[in-house]
Amino acid sequence: MYQVLYRKWRPQVFKDVVGQPQVTQTLKNELKAGRIAHAYLFTGSRGTGKTTCAKILARAVNCLSPIDGDPCGECEICRGIQDGSILDVVEIDAASNNGVDSIRALREEVNFTPAAAKYRVYIIDEVHMLSIGAFNALLKTLEEPPAHVIFILATTEVHKLPATILSRCQRFDFRRIPPEDIAGRLRYVTEQEGGTIDEEAAMLLARLSDGAMRDALSLLDQCLGRSKQIDVKVVNEAAGLASREHLFTLTEALRDGDSAKALAVVDEMHRAGKDMARLCEEWQSHLRALMLIKTMHDARRLVAVTDDEFTALEKQALSVRLSVLLHGLDTLQETLERMYRGGDRRTAFEMAVLRLCCPELDDSRAALVRRIEALERGLPSHRTAQPAAQPSAKEPTAAAPEEEGPPAAFAAPASPTPPEPAAHASKSPPPSLQALAAAAEPLTEWPEILQELKQYSRTVAAAFDGSSAYTSGPYVLIDAQSELAFRLLREPAQRDGMRRAIQKVTGRTYKLGPYRPADESAQKAADPLQALAERAQAQGIPVVES
Q1: What CA–CA distance (Å, rounded) separates 257 from 75?
Q2: What is the pLDDT of residues 145-186, one digit of tens each?
Q3: What letter does residue 425 receive in the DSSP assignment?
Q4: Distance (Å, rounded) from C-alpha 363 to C-alpha 147?
Q5: Residue 240's closest CA among 286, 204, 202, 196?
Q6: Burial bucket for residue 96 (CB in 10 Å: 0-12, 13-18, 19+)
Q7: Closest by alpha carbon to 388, among 293, 478, 313, 457?
Q8: Looking at the whole model, is its pTM more than 0.90?
Q9: For 405-427, what is each residue's pLDDT tens digit?
Q10: Domains of the chain, with CATH numbers?
């Protein structure tokens, strides 16, 4: 008879348990030291190894020849417990045996000594399902059981257990298994089953399992049923998922307010037989990844995707506002709840798409925030549209007298206390700017700031293409190859637009300055002939090169 993968590859020793070192190492140390408690409580989300560790512990305490805290798996006790011929290890499902009578029968059984093993072990799964009367009946036995009895309680909802039960157990918390660990285990199991799985498909299965190894192995079982060579396409077909391209397209339609494009994608997915609730969940997960990328300095470890897909997510995150993402997450969560209450799922999802693409049709708070933000963003853009288009025409006249001054000239109006008042009179950067540059750190949000600047003026944003920026104390130091960028920032309107864009993205108000590292000024100072030639050209004296 065929055995499903999560049963076939259930770990038999503690070292094979994936992603729970805080539990397995402690249990091994206690077993080696002979410090065996009378009651254990294993708590955590589904599929993280609670029942597996309980079974390993039941064999380890009774093993005749334990190896470094692990059961040997070869002695008659280990084999008997494994095949069910030794009845001293009892598994009880509390969901179906949750009454007082079941616990009273258990209390009578614990008085009998083990038939073959050293300990009688009771594994009570989903213990939170016991009734209040059953808990009360278990209290005294759980506190002072006979010396030959060990209780192992397992639950996914530890908050439902009475405090009197919690205080009588040694508690172990099982964490969600990291996606990287799940992907590694999936690759190993696939190889043992004679198949192959690529990295992207393994990470997709790990992300879908949500930290549960059992769920991941069940999905892998379905994929191997379709093909021995597993890629992302096989995973999408086996799990009924939307392809990543559809999710990116839906998000682009949300960003652009293109409801027709979004509804066309929904229709295509529906005709392909995709479940609308699953599509809604996948899109919600996609928007969550974009939200994390926009709000965190480094969201890589929280977004369980491949490197290529993460790069694509980063690129899309720059073009979508945070208010749009929050509106999407809020609306999709409400839509999922409506779907599960009943009704036509396709209609519910299409209504959500329309409200997201046309926020004026939505009366929720998130939609109002989007509309207010759009108004605020539109007002300064409308008022400064004409001045933003004029810098190129003013360059030959207004900016000509400043060509001999350093680009740092725009830093003076940015703050009532400029770094160096004498900046206009000197050809080299002021010492204070050199000190700021020496302590500067890269501004990672600079690409997003330039995207925000495009909302204010595309002309100004285009002047900063290929530039970079650094933060140093209260200053943002801009490193641009184009002199036009610095000339634009000498104008108060353009400088204020840049500061507003920086504040919008970073949440802080910075002063502006040029990035001029010390080695650049030293290089200029080391070439006196070049400096002399520049002064001669400034005075109109011809210079002849030899």
Answers
A1: 68
A2: 889 999 999 999 999 999 999 999 999 999 999 988 999 999
A3: G
A4: 65
A5: 204
A6: exposed
A7: 457
A8: no
A9: 334 445 443 444 444 444 444 44
A10: 5-174 (3.40.50.300), 179-239 (1.10.8.60), 244-377 (1.20.272.10), 407-418+426-525 (3.30.300.180)
